[in-house]
Amino acid sequence: MLRLFIGLSVFFTYLLMVMGNIVTTTGSGLACPDWPLCYGTVIPPRQLNIWLEWSHRLLGGTTGFLVLASVITAWFTKAPREQRLLTTTALGLLGVGVVFGGVIVLIEAPLLQGALHLLVISFHIMLSTVIFTLMILAFKSTSSAPAKQEESFYPALLAIVFLQVFIGIFVRYGKASLACPDFPLCRGALFPDLVDFKVTIHFLHRLMATLIFLLATGYFVKALMAKKDTFNASVTFGLVLTQATFGVEIVWTGMFLPFIVLHGATGFFTLAWLVYRSSPYLLGLISRPAPAQA
Fold first, then answer.
1. Directed axis angle between helix 2-25 and helix 114-141, to 10°?
2. Cα–chain-centroid distance for residue 163?
3. Could you give the CA distance from residue 19 to residue 64 in angstroms, rounded to a whole number?
4. Sign of the CA dihedral 242, 248, 252, 253?
5. Residue range 83-108: mean pLDDT, rounded
6. Can you give the pTM of this predicted structure?
């Protein structure tokens, strides 16, 4: 039962993150002017942007219920320490996100402009990413199979991808997605003049994407030659390649909405895959006993 609740929590958290990307991309974040209801009711006016935001809230409520059920089940069944720790921490962070989101809606526009808007969006996405990671680790810890240490490549790549997610937030919501309107060059140059923040952060995002692609490609080739870990290496390479392709299409099409959504969805899935592959190492850090006091 615990594995079922945690697995559903992971799935719905992923859907919540993808839906959140759709809501912010379409500018529907304040379509419901009140909270926790929408226009004072559970059946708001039939308008696309309103129902996008309301569906996002309903999805968030479902996710919250599943995480809560995971926590209750973990403590009631006296599950191992790391499962209780991971699920309880995720629930606490989810509560912070819900309260923070409600406050933002109630105080409305003043905090949704300029740098503060970027800060709010960044906080929500990074919080969701951490919750997502915790629940994936909790799911992995419920496996009856003994944890096998994966290649050290995956934790290293995961750390870089986490940083890339953070940079990508600034690119997307700092309105820097088209700061370099061409590809593979940037403003007609291989190394553009970093004239402002938008160009700088966009170019940094491209450099990080190139690094991730080269690392995934190199490991893929190495795995094929050594005939070791070929399946995992192939999946990793395929996800990174797909993610990069959607990123390029966003530039080439001038921010075509489907590519923006697919870019985010693939990115979140890639992150989930790397967390899962890195879970033996990460769970080892969590379960490692504290050093004895002198």
1. 160
2. 11
3. 15
4. positive
5. 81
6. 0.88
